[in-house]
Amino acid sequence: MSVLPPVRRDRVIPQLPQSFRKEAALHTENDFSNKVKTACQEQRTGTVGFKISKVIVVGDLAVGKTCLINRFCKDAFDKNYKATIGVDFEMERFEVLGVPFSLQLWDTAGQERFKCIASTYYRGAQVVIITFALNDIASLGHARQWLEDALKENDPTGVQLFLVGTKKDLSTAAQYSRIEQDALKFAKEICAEYWAVSSLTGENVKEFFFRVAALAFETNVLAELEKSTSRQIGDVVSEYRNGSMLKKTHHPHKV
């Protein structure tokens, strides 16, 4: 039986990373919920075991999806552009509140001819990252269609959405200000968390993925806690229905 090596020290998340903009954040609190922290401290079996969340990254051709993933996973930036054919994926391991957790990062093709191939890999996502380039207003306009395509393959109520502006280093101050206003408006409309990053310089990249990992982890644990509570209630109901609980509590009077 193979044993995974320890999580890298720079992938440990002891507290909730903060959002980029409070006005467009999925989680407005400054820390993990008390339920999650308690569950992790108690190391409840089945609730906080090894977990994986699937993350899909979508967006127009050449907005920098692959560069974003490579900057975080490999701390590398390749200036020689190569279009993704179909899909690629990376597995990134974390430790959140002392618990092992992984993100499965799916890098999908932005080319129209590969859309059908890529869309088959959208299914089962817990997180959807919609990317656009901060120096290309048209790519933000196309973000809505990318979102719709991703949600066709998933339960809209079961995914967390992030709207990410890439190529922050290539956007002038005036251009950035204009496009960010539109991006923030769109993020609020679709209930997504907004971020602006640069894969070239690395600005906000680590912070962004740590935020994704932390929120995905919290959602995962809360869902498991809810299931656990439902199972416990279900067990009690079943015992009452089959009479075993009544047998345990019934004490006949002595004569």
UniProtKB/TrEMBL annotation:
It holds the Pfam family Ras. One of its GO terms (biological process) is cell projection organization. It comes from the Eukaryota. It is a lipid-anchor. InterPro entries: P-loop_NTPase, Rab, Small_GTP-bd, Small_GTPase. Gene3D superfamilies: P-loop containing nucleotide triphosphate hydrolases (3.40.50.300). GO terms for molecular function: G protein activity; GTP binding; metal ion binding. GO terms for cellular component: centriole; cilium; Golgi apparatus; phagocytic vesicle membrane. SUPFAM superfamilies: P-loop containing nucleoside triphosphate hydrolases. Its EC number is 3.6.5.2. Its main location: other. It catalyses: GTP + H2O = GDP + phosphate + H(+). This is Ras-related protein Rab-34.
